[in-house]
Specification:
By secondary structure, the protein is mainly alpha-helical. It contains 8 helices and 4 strands. The chain is elongated and about 50 Å long.
């Protein structure tokens, strides 16, 4: 039986392999996202909101990771996460994903422009509206549906951040 490495969002504690601290821009991006999801402005977000927030930021945790994360939060953090806990949870993932990457922030910003309702996925309709708004291009529903179908690897009929990155990097 192999021992599975813990969810990247749950790593941490004493053996953190953090090679650098988050930059001011990265912390500000986390703060802006956190504040956006702190609907009652009490300084906490719920477990459910955390999953949605992570998706909005372009992180695509698996269902298993979300379950593990939820159990960890419910046991250790009373079912709610404050900004410090959020930063602690997100730092390993953010550092891991940004290692050697250029333009990730720009891709996230672009993704947010397309993801009109902020649910972490771009629908055909959102893509069509964004094409009009951002590029001034009228595109038929059929053409948009074909684009979504081409990049929709998980078959959910939407474009998530990972699929968006692949779509934007195609030549």
């Amino acid at each position: 039986m192999s021992i599975k490495q813990p969810c990247i969002f749950l790593r941490g504690g004493g053996k953190r392999r953090q090679t650098r601290n988050l930059t001011g821009d990265e912390l500000e991006e986390l703060r802006e996202a956190f504040v956006e999801f702190d609907k009652d402005k009490d300084g906490f977000i719920t477990c459910k909101d955390l999953g949605n927030l992570m998706r909005t930021m372009g992180y695509m945790p698996t269902e298993m990771e979300l379950i593990e994360l939820s159990q960890n939060i419910n046991m250790n953090l009373g079912g709610r996460v404050d900004f410090e806990d959020f930063v602690e949870l997100m730092t390993p993932k953010l550092l891991d994903e940004t290692a050697g990457m250029i333009g990730l922030k720009e891709l996230r910003d672009a993704f947010r422009e397309f993801d009109i309702d902020g649910d972490g996925a771009i629908t055909s309709e959102e893509l069509r509206l964004a094409m009009i708004k951002l590029l001034g291009e009228q595109t038929s529903k059929k053409e948009i549906d074909e684009v979504v179908k081409e990049v929709d690897n998980n078959g959910d009929g939407k474009v998530d951040f990972e699929e968006f990155v692949k779509m934007m990097s195609k030549k």
